[in-house]
Amino acid sequence: MGANIGVAIAKLLAAFFTGSSAMLSESVHSIADCSNEIVLMVGGRFSKRKTDGDHPFGLYRAKYLASFVVATLLFFVGGFFSTSEAVKKLIAIAGDPTLRDVNRMELLVAFIVVVISACLEGYGLHQSIKEANERMERTNTPRMGVFRFWRHTKSAELASVIMEDTLALIGLAFAGLGIGLAILLDDEIFDALGGLMVGLVLIVGSLFLAFKSGSLLIGEAVDSDTRGKIVEAVTTTPGVERLLNMQTVHMSEDDILLCVKVQTSKLDRDYDVETVDKIEKAVRTALPGTISRSTSSRTSTAPNTCTRNRFPRNRNRSIWESGRSDSSGLSHMRVGNGGSGIIPRPPDPGRSRSTGPRRRRA
User: Fold this and answer.
1) What is the DSSP secondary-structure string of 232-279?
2) Cβ-contact 245, 331 below 8 angstroms
3) CA of 283: how far to CAs of 38, 124, 138, 163, in Å?
4) Coil, helix or strand for 65?
């Protein structure tokens, strides 16, 4: 964080003293990066807060919201600002050819700042890749390239940081190219074109990051490898005859909401409760450190409770995190981060809501 602030100040001072359009675009980029880190830090802390029941599954998706805010506001606004400033300079140069003259010493200072910034950003990208490799090793994920990891990761912070560092290096390459050509060819228009390219890089990067964070915010299922581990854990649990349906969604990179529909071997309430507990333990064993908390079990005989929330509609009654099975022997379990929210048990439809005796109609 401190290094990024220092780089942003150095770029801003260089842009102010040299008048370089490319350096101005890079300074805006660095300011966006600093703001990005602040927003992600706030989102990370907010996601750890306890809820009073208004958010039954916790505030874990605040991280995804913070990443989406970064993409839509900071990167996108920064990209348009950089692009508009570069376009203004190009229009000014086209209207007054004398503005093409270059002060080589000033641009040389800007070029040196670009080279130093590229070294720092390259080290930052190296650290991000190292963190990605450590995460793959910690979660027993097969090794993959950076771009493929970025596409499949559920970590909003890591996806944003990798995107930041990558865009920074690409932007610095365009800025350095534009400043270098301006010095060599004694034409200020190349510096303006370099600034324009930096702005376009920011816009394109913001769109990619917005798509990624938006997908996480809406809710993504687990990857195929994790799904296979869960299926194996559920189907090999004693008491489970068949896995009928399963739905998963990432609440954060390390928290999964799991809803399964299984057929048990007995039509006994107590037996199903034990089976649900066994399934939960089996899944936690298969995915250590991933499904970190679970909500308290509740029994519900209300029809289509789980169907409305997780499963396609069917004619069977659904039991939400059940210890009771219906006439077809089906039971449902929800495992994941529920925060402090508990799904209340609805009234038994077989009982009257009135405590007094019913009056028989004449």
Assistant:
1) HHHHTSTTEEEEEEEEEEEEETTEEEEEEEEEES---HHHHHHHHHHH
2) no
3) 35, 36, 17, 33
4) helix
Q: How many residues does the chain have?
A: 362
Q: Please tell me the predicted confidence (pLDDT) of residue 315.
A: 30
Q: Give the tokens for residue 248.
A: 């998963």
Q: How far is it, in rounded angstroms, from Cα 297 to Cα 213?
A: 32
CA atoms of 136 and 134, how far apart (whole Å): 5
DSSP-H helix ranges across the chain: 2-18, 21-47, 62-69, 76-95, 104-138, 146-152, 156-185, 189-218, 224-235, 269-286, 305-309
Element (H, E) at 335: strand 330-335
Within 10 angstroms of residue 236's Cβ, the number of other Cβ atoms is 10
pTM: predicted TM-score of the whole model, two decimal places: 0.71
Asked if residues 158 and 128 have their Cβ atoms less than 8 Å apart, the reply is yes
Q: Which pLDDT score is estimated for 359? A: 44
> Residue 263: which pLDDT band, with cuts at 50, 70 and 90?
confident
CA atoms within 13 A of residue 45's CA, in its CB half-sphere: 5
Q: Measured between alpha carbons, how far is residue 257 from residues 49, 72, 151, 222 in Å? A: 18, 27, 21, 10
**CA distance linking residue 300 with residue 310, whole number of Å:** 15
> 3-class SS at 358?
coil
Q: What tens digit of pLDDT does each residue of 173-205 get?
A: 999 999 999 999 988 899 999 999 999 998 998
> What CA–CA distance (Å, rounded) separates 288 from 81?
45
Which element (helix H / strand E) includes 331? strand 330-335
CA distances (Å), 125 to each of 9, 116, 157, 170, 346, in order?
20, 14, 14, 12, 52
Query: pLDDT per residue over 72-91, tens digit each?
Result: 877 777 788 888 888 988 99
**3-class secondary structure, 139:** coil
Distance CA 332, CA 267 (A): 14
